[in-house]
């Protein structure tokens, strides 16, 4: 796992307490976005629960949230060090009505995006309290309504698309797709794999938060990996970035006649979870396989038929 160690962030963490407090107060008073982003990163990397093991994606997401919140606060007349008790809720309301500016997206922000922005703003205030700049907690009573449509419905698992796309993938790309769709890996985990992580029919995977798990490999996945040589000098099996891997699989889906069905790598991971649950009927085992800390998370990865218990209730 790649760890984020921003130079500016670590400089702030090394300041004496009085100096850090002054720096944080100045930044908040001036709505200095860049310093407040660095302050949040510094807190996340040195004082949060995960510390230096905080993932790159989390740091990036929280930094984006701070860049969104601070200009809003300035325009909305919010004093960052002395916010009103309703200002957190005001920010949530604004996010819910703000149009999405993502590439190719229209309409309001998704509930998950709103929650992510609010999580980042909360992290900013934890950082300000850590620096001794304020005791304010404007998001303590701010609630983010959940999305009424389950993620498994909005982004369901692939089904026949996987086998249809595989013949249109060159061997290394096919191995990547199988690692996600059959071995249940996150694409970030798969792209970081090294030859040394392979051990016969098992794979050692380092997931979120540095957690290590052993993943059994099915026959097709083992065969796909067996012919691969390292793609990089450090032993990694793949040299692609996330964007490069996405571009290649989108082409394979289009070639298979499923261009409109591409929904990202997460739908491939859900394909794996759904198939394993159908075979085991055990969310706990599926969660361990996917590397989830909570079974509640696993439930969001499994598509269960509406009539899944029809046989069981037949003789009630």
Automatic annotation (TrEMBL):
One MF annotation (Gene Ontology) recorded for this entry: DNA binding
Tyr recombinase domain span: 152-315
Biological processes annotated in GO: DNA integration; DNA recombination
InterPro entries for this protein: DNA_brk_join_enz, Integrase-like_cat_sf, Integrase_catalytic, Integrase_recombinase_N, Integrase_SAM-like_N, Tyrosine_recombinase_XerCD
SUPFAM superfamilies, per the entry: DNA breaking-rejoining enzymes
UniProt KW DNA-binding keyword: yes
Superkingdom: Bacteria
CDD domains in the record: DNA_BRE_C (cd00397)
UniProt keyword annotations, A-Z: DNA integration, DNA recombination, DNA-binding, Plasmid
Stated name of the protein: Putative phage integrase
Taxonomic source organism: Deinococcus deserti (strain DSM 17065 / CIP 109153 / LMG 22923 / VCD115)
